[in-house]
Amino acid sequence: MPIRKRSILLRDLRNYLTFLKDYGFSEIPSESGVTLELPSGTKGLPYSSIDTDKTSHMKTNKNITAKPNISIENVREELGDCTRCNLHKDRKTIVFGSGNPHADLVFVGEGPGADEDEQGFPFVGRAGRKLTEIIEKGMNLRREEDTYICNIVKCRPPNNRDPKPDEIAACNPFLIRQLQAIRPKAIVALGKPAASTLLGRTVPIMKERGNWYEYEGIPLMLTLHPAYLLRAYTIENRRNVMNDMNKVLTKLKR
Ligand code: SF4
After folding, report:
1. Given a cut of 60, is residue 41 above it in pLDDT?
2. Residue 53 predicted with pLDDT over 50
3. Is 85's C-beta closer than 6 angstroms to any atom of ligand 1?
4. Count of other CB atoms within 10 angstroms of residue 78
5. Which of 84, 117, 151, 168 to mutate to test ligand 1, by most ligand atoms within 8 A of the CB atom?
6. Ligand 1 centre from 239 Cα, in Å?
7. Cβ(167) to ligand 1 under 6 A?
8. Please, how many CA atoms are within 13 Å of residue 67, restricted to the half-sphere of its CB?
């Protein structure tokens, strides 16, 4: 097998094993009866899932605030015309992210929908308009100037299904790199898949929203996804999201 193909296979395998470990698996049963133990290590989806020589320094540096010398443009270049997971097959556009690459605040959503796939920007459909309203009317910030917005997967899952674990695992190194490049003062996870990916465990979002966590040293707030908010447009949900955003503003001292 050509070396390049083998290294891609090994990278994908390692990403997948890392993902299983982060989701609580400690071993893999095999038909031979031999049980393979997954190596113990850090919680969360670690930098070791990034597989390029260019990023090898990240493998020992687990703190985003340690400021690796990368820019958002570097990360976009590394991503390239990505075919690392099956989502590339049906996408029209890679939806990398948008906003200020030096923003204090980053919103992380789940994945692009049809409008985003068409236009190449995150959160531009109905849910996106709701997010813009939350940012601009609710928080009194400017979406493009004061925030950066991206998703855990950069390509649209067909029929807007949830991204699969192996797809999230394949794309996660680039989310990590984006956050490393931006080094915001706070991150907001929009909805369960984003919260679960950033915390490396399954998050019951209705229970845990509104609480502060940490993602590699950066304060992380969990809140409802704007698409969910539109579906369940109750006074309680709207109030909860605004309470969450007020906590973020306090953290940013705005
Ligand atoms: S979702 Fe991410 S890993 Fe998968 S093809 Fe798109 S950019 Fe690549």
Report:
1. no
2. no
3. yes
4. 16
5. 84
6. 34
7. yes
8. 2
How far apart are alpha carbons 125 and 127 in whole angstroms? 6
Please work out whether the CB of residue 177 comes within 6 Å of at least one atom of ligand 1. no
Residue written as token pair 């998703």? 151
User: What percentage of the chain reaches a pLDDT higher than 90?
Assistant: 72
Give the tens place of pLDDT for each residue, 84-139: 999 999 999 999 999 999 999 999 999 999 999 999 999 999 999 999 999 999 99
Phi, psi values for residue 43, rounded to 5°: -80, 165
Q: Which of 189-199 are b and which e, b meaning 16 or more Cβ less than 10 Å from the residue's Cβ? A: bbbbbbbbbbb
d(C-alpha 8, C-alpha 17), whole Å: 14
> Topology of 64-252 in CATH?
Uracil-DNA Glycosylase, subunit E (3.40.470)
Give φ, ψ of 62 to 5 degrees: -95, 5
> Quick one: three-class SS letters along the chain?
CCHHHHHHHHHHHHHHHHHHHHCCCCEEECCCCCEEECCCCCCCCCHHHCCCHHHHHHHHCCCHHHCCCCCHHHHHHHHCCCCCCHHHHCCCCCCCCEECCCCCEEEEECCCCHHHHHHCCCCCCHHHHHHHHHHHHHCCCCHHHHEEEEECCCCCCHHHCCCCHHHHHHHHHHHHHHHHHHCCCEEEEECHHHHHHHHCCCCCHHHHCCCEEEECCEEEEEECCHHHHHHCCCHHHHHHHHHHHHHHHHHHCC
Residue 69: CB atoms within 10 Å: 8
